[in-house]
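BUG-596 | component: ligand-complex export | severity: low

The export step for flavin-adenine dinucleotide jobs runs without errors, but we want the raw record kept on the ticket for reference. Input record follows.
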Amino acid sequence: MKILVPFKRVADPENANKVKVTGAKIETAGLEWKPNPFDEYAVEAALRLTENGTAPKARLGEVIVVTFGPAECDQTLRGALATGADKAIRVECTDDQLDGPIVARALAKIVEQVKPDLVMMGKQTVDSDSNQVGQYLAELLGWPQITFAATIKNEGNVALEIARVGDGGMQRVKVKLPAVVTVEDRVVYSGGVQSAPTPASHKYADGVRFAPLPAIMQAKKKPLEVKKLGDLGIDTTPSAKYVGYEPPPARKAGVKVKTVAELVEKLKGEAKVL
Amino acid sequence: MADILVVAEIVEGQVKKATYSAVAFARDAAKALGGSYDILAIGQGADKAAAELGGYGARKVLVADDASLKGYVTERFAPIVAAAGKSHAVVGATATTNGKDLMPRVAAKLGAGYAPDITGFKAEGGKLQYKRPMYAGNAYGWLTIETPIQLVTVRQTDFTPAEPSGGASAVEKVAVVADKAADQVEFVAFETIKSERPDLTEAKVIIAGGRAIKEKFMDVLGPLADTLGAAIGATRAACDAGFAPTELQIGQTGKVVAPQLYVAVGISGAIQHLAGMKGSKTIVAINKDPEAPIFQVADYGLVADLFQVMPELTTAVKAAKS
Ligand SMILES: Cc1cc2nc3c(=O)[nH]c(=O)nc-3n(C[C@H](O)[C@H](O)[C@H](O)COP(=O)(O)OP(=O)(O)OC[C@H]3O[C@@H](n4cnc5c(N)ncnc54)[C@H](O)[C@@H]3O)c2cc1C
Ligand SMILES: Nc1ncnc2c1ncn2[C@@H]1O[C@H](COP(=O)(O)O)[C@@H](O)[C@H]1O
């Protein structure tokens, strides 16, 4: 199975104190760049689908990561190669040339060139929190989409059985390939993804795998192809634009109570929520 | 032509509450643009839901009711929304898992720009600007959409649900069409989580717990939740560790909630968690670490061992209520 994984680097929102919002822009200068966590989960899921968990060194398929961004993103791609991806593609552009539909249109072209059986991707990026590229791409390709995947079972490389997280429950679906699948965090739990050759008794560790040092060295030799956004022949007109930003509303400072009795008194008398 | 279409979310024949927040958006946006709004009801059993939806002042209620629409499958719903949406300026839906799954696909069909998860909007010079959270709620962006048709999903917690306004909208059937891709997807089952407790996104009170509670998660939170008729929520760490089912996760990547009362028990207050509950009216935090970031958003903080105070709190709340 050949799997394409779109992989984005994001300004880490965890450094909350450093997200500086001015009216005109979000200041990312002080933020640390790291791979979008959900894309790391997608790579892990793709690796598990293309290996026998008990002998992961022998690759049984191909995982290709692709990013849209400037040269600094190469480092992020090398990280994905070090954890086990086979090839990387970077499409040269700046972040402000992109929006969701443009990334989706560009990805559709990459899919045409790479011809994967499956596009596995994060359900959302944690900077824009948009949650749109996967669904948009699926439509452009005329492929089915399965979003919010929590568990994925491979059925003979032609179909996947997926449990997706819905409101108030889990939805079970079967999807024939090719398809676009977007993943939840829990797809990287121990039992989240298992390829057909992996014995049912095999237990993955929870979470994503880390690259051992030799793999990091080897990753430098893995192929990383650079393309230009302008060469893909897509419409690069933005569909939407941000006209301003503002910080979140501040909550007024609360108080510490000393005892349960005091808390209940406040909830009843002051907040009137009991 | 500045008409708005809003997609109702119907689950097993019932209109989901989130729908009425989306209807409130449609009503207000139609007013701002000087147009009207229509409601689209899709699903098996949508016919019945249409009667209920007709009481909200919409010009028309469009209905697609068919056996093929029994469970939600994107590839069956999206073409119907796209066909109905073509004659509207703005198409809105709920920012629930189904709405978020559906609308970008519809956007691609219509070549439309999309504003996900909006928490507000304003009209400037006859054009809508949408407010939406980014960076786990650490910033809000104002977005304009530059395509002829605009798509949005509406965050339930930020729009007061519309109330019935009387009257009855005209009901119109719309054709059922499906993507070719629909044949590649087989809906197997929807496994609902059976719970006596209210739905997280609809609860007035939420008792939420973190990883610190460990295996006894439900035992520790259950009594207080039962006393208050509350829903139970959890952090991702508690879900990851298997102490609570993932469906209860609140936060950037879980549910977004805004109850009257949110009690955070043994929750550190990571930004990703805050992103999902900061809008709650009154927040109580119980944590043994006085420096825990959750105290920065809590109206009432109690520095204490949760295992000690939870039974005490339950008893005291019971007494206060009687
Ligand atoms: C991409 C991404 C998305 C995420 N999305 C979410 C999300 O949607 N929702 C979410 O919640 N998290 C999310 N997280 C995880 C988040 O960063 C935190 O790791 C998580 O919220 C921490 O959960 P916690 O507070 O239960 O655990 P911890 O951070 O371990 O905190 C436990 C707390 O319990 C307190 N405590 C311990 N023992 C006791 C006791 N006996 N009595 C009282 N207090 C006690 C401690 O002082 C501590 O403050 C996400 C992370 C990433 C990277
Ligand atoms: N610049 C980018 N480069 C590569 N992949 C991207 C990029 N932007 C978005 N994606 C992919 O699209 C998914 C959803 O992103 P979004 O719709 O922006 O929240 C991400 O998890 C990535 O897999």
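Assignee comment: Attached the raw record above. Chain A touches chain B through 85 residues (CB under 8 Å).
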